[in-house]
Amino acid sequence: MMTKFQEREIHDFLRRKKLSAVIFNEVYDHFVIQISELMKENLSFQEAFLKTKIGWQYELEMVNADVLSFKKIARIEKTVLKSRFRNIILSSISLSMIGLAAFLFLNDYFYIVQVSLAVLCFSMLVYNFTFKKMKFREYIELSFHPLILRNLFIGCILFLGMGYFTQSAHFRDFEIVKVFSIYTGLVQIQLLYFRSKKVNVLI
Amino acid sequence: MYGYQMTQRAKELTEGELEMTEGALYPLLHKLEGDGIITSEIQKINGRDRKYYLLTEKGKRQQANQEAEMKTYLFNLNTIFNI
């Protein structure tokens, strides 16, 4: 039987791994059961704890969150976040492609979509702040989110590239630039949406 | 079923042949949950939050399909090696 002090030791060890609440609760519960089971096999708490920590060493190793981030997070957290980001990127690309198909037939459609996305983005921001779904510190973190920074970087290359190769002052009117701006808007909206649902997307 | 239970059940059913890496299990469960294959509910056990995972209807259909695919695959493999 584990004492409160021993449970506290596990708690403190996992706290240092800076896991999000959802993953923390799951891993903590797993650690407590696994250690308790090992203790039933006549291992002391310290031995069982060490054995469990060794088993989880790879997943709990602190790694760089992203190429564009200095933050260190546990590998398990990074894997979960990467999978979530992949879904955000894929759904944004799919919707942008639908947008592209629409732009080919309806030229004025782009401005309607752009304004709608901006309104939606602003509304979600207001909603998140009004209903305390997001703190100001989290908003700042979201503003420098690796997905947004990456989009900014790609956007700059795209704008400069289009301007340079076409030598046209109207390079912003090209379909690819329009689609990309819709894509970035969709990524931002999804990040705000996940935040409103208290799903961790911050790194 | 919850995470630890899954690892133990897999070990038990395969008589220790299949040992799941515990840490690799949770990202996979989160992905399946995001894809709507499984759903979860949290219960308080001994003062701790325990997350139980359940198959959704979509998950049950996918399980049936993959089971059928796997059976066909194993049947074909068996046929080839028994020639």
Short characterization:
The complex is a heterodimer of chains A (203) and B (83). Chain A is mostly helical.
Q: Reading side by side through the largest sheet of chain B, how are the strands ordered?
A: 1-2
Low-pLDDT segments, ≥5 res of chain A: none
Can you count the helices of chain B? 3
Number of domains of chain B: 1
Largest sheet of chain A: 2 strands, antiparallel
* Rg from alpha-carbon coordinates of chain A: 23 Å
Residue windows where pLDDT falls under 50 for at least 5 positions of chain B: none
The quaternary organization reads as heterodimer
What does this 3D model show about the protein?
The complex is a heterodimer of chains A (203) and B (83). The two termini of chain A are 37 Å apart. In chain A, strand 1 and strand 2 (72-74) form a beta hairpin. Chain A has a two-stranded antiparallel ribbon with strand order 1-2. The longest helix of chain A has 31 residues, at 75-105. Chain A has helices at 4-15, 21-40, 45-55, 75-105, 109-130, 136-143, 146-166, 175-196; strands at residues 62-64, 72-74. Chain A is built from eight helices and two strands, in the order αααββααααα. Chain B has three helices and two strands. By secondary structure, chain B is α+β, with helices and mostly antiparallel strands. The longest helix of chain B is centred in the C-terminal third of the chain and has 25 residues, at 57-81. Chain B is 59% helix and 19% strand. Chain B has a two-stranded antiparallel sheet. Chain B has a single domain, classed as Orthogonal Bundle (Arc Repressor Mutant, subunit A), CATH 1.10.10. Classes of the chains: A mainly alpha (203), B alpha+beta (83). The A-B interface holds A 22-23, 25-30, 32-34, 55-56, 58-60, 75-76, 79-80, 83-84, 87 and B 2-4, 21-24, 26-27, 30-31, 34, 42, 45, 48-51.
